[in-house]
Design brief:
Helix content is 38%, strand content 11%. By secondary structure, it is of the alpha/beta class. It starts with 14 loop residues before the first helix and ends with a helix. The N terminus is likely disordered.
Length: 385
């Protein structure tokens, strides 16, 4: 594992050459400024030093292309759907989906939207309305089969536009493993989609779920996480239920932070060294709080858990979608973990507020290599495209 202190080195063109050239030179600061570097941070990752400088950019919901939308480029790893066969299966169980959005199930209209907005491919997953808490284990197994089979068929029809993160009935780990094995290797199966927790229980770290994690690692499929809706599943319970409804805005990012931290201090990432984990919403609060978490886990207390690497190194064991909304926050994330750990994630069509995924990124004027990694290169690597 690479030391996190050098996390940004791969993502900055010419950084090593600069460091060698500047070593021992009296004009190191001037040289750094000449090539757009300051204290090892590339110019594109630096916020303006004063209000008089150029704009820091616009939030994601306001990002628009300057001209015509070019050819589709973005591979979206946080994109929800709810296909008609699955919706019908829910309704048959007496649990119809509330307020279905047309682009969640009308894939002809969705592909047109993708063309018009610069999306090359969506990795399709359920939204926070995942049903696992509301149904029995057997009902969950049936629903998982329905949506996974539908996703495989959709990929076969549109292989260049859609792949799937398979859904697992997590209430019963044996049924989850059975479903995972049933669809493993099928066309379009490129990831596993799991909720952070269920009913405030961290099922991921249960001994009974270990065979599922081991099999996911063996299959070399990334896990794409997402919070599950409902007060019963909310990390803060009814405190964020509303009004106003703050669960998705505040509660979910805190839960992502807890999930990521627990992956580290339980030794789970050491136990499964090749497991790939994608955190939604730019990792939630985790990147911002990681230093505090390390301090309180390993410096303030006599923590008994032994991990194999410095805590900070584990930040690059995760991938993060870029759904953080403020440009300053994405600059921070890029500086912390590097461009090779960030993917496009829009939350479409649940949040419905990232219309142009490429325009979100283009405002940063990144080096071409960094832009390509975030827009599609990292997703292609994770999804084996």
């Amino acid at each position: 594992m690479k030391n996190s202190r050098n996390a940004g080195a791969e993502s900055v063109i010419g950084r090593r050459d600069f460091i060698r050239a500047a070593a021992g030179a009296t004009g190191a600061v001037s040289a750094a400024a000449a090539i757009g570097m300051l204290n090892g941070v590339p110019a594109w990752a630096q916020a303006p030093s004063s209000p008089a400088q150029s704009s820091q950019g616009v939030p994601w919901w306001a990002a628009r292309p300057k001209g015509a939308v070019g050819k589709p480029e973005a591979i979206d790893m946080h994109s929800h759907w709810s296909p008609e066969p699955y919706d019908k299966a829910l309704a048959d169980l007496g649990k119809p989906l509330a307020n279905p959005y047309p682009l969640d199930y009308d894939l002809d209209k969705r592909r047109q939207w993708m063309d018009d907005h610069g999306d090359l491919m969506h990795c399709l997953t359920l939204s926070g309305a995942m049903p696992w808490q509301r149904v029995s284990a057997q009902e969950g197994a049936h629903l998982a089969q329905v949506i996974n089979d539908t996703g495989i068929q959709v990929h076969q029809k549109y292989p260049d536009r859609f792949v799937i993160g398979i859904e697992l009935p997590i209430r019963d780990p044996e049924l989850a493993l059975k479903e995972l094995n049933r669809v493993a290797g099928q066309p379009g199966v490129r990831a596993v989609h799991l909720p952070d927790s269920m009913e405030r229980h961290d099922y991921i770290f249960d001994a009974k779920f270990a065979p599922v994690l081991a099999r996911i690692e063996q299959l070399n499929l990334p896990i794409i996480f997402h919070q599950m809706d409902g007060v019963a599943n909310a990390f803060g319970g009814d405190r964020t239920a509303g009004p106003p409804p703050l669960a998705a805005g505040i509660d979910a990012p805190i839960e992502h932070a807890f999930l990521a931290t627990k992956f580290i201090y339980t030794g789970t990432l050491d136990k499964y060294p090749n497991l790939q984990v994608v955190l939604p919403h730019a990792g939630g609060a985790f990147p911002y709080l990681a230093g505090r978490e390390e301090h309180f886990l390993f410096h303030m207390t006599d923590h008994s858990t032994s991990i194999q690497h410095p805590f900070r190194d584990y930040l690059r064991r995760f991938h993060y979608d870029y759904l953080i909304y403020y440009p300053e926050a994405l600059r921070f994330l890029m500086g912390l973990v590097g461009s090779d750990r960030i993917v496009v994630g829009t939350d479409n069509f649940a949040a419905k507020d990232v219309e142009y995924p490429t325009a979100v990124l283009d405002q940063f004027k990144l080096p071409a290599a960094d832009r390509e990694r975030i827009l599609k290169g990292n997703a292609m690597r994770l999804l084996h495209l």
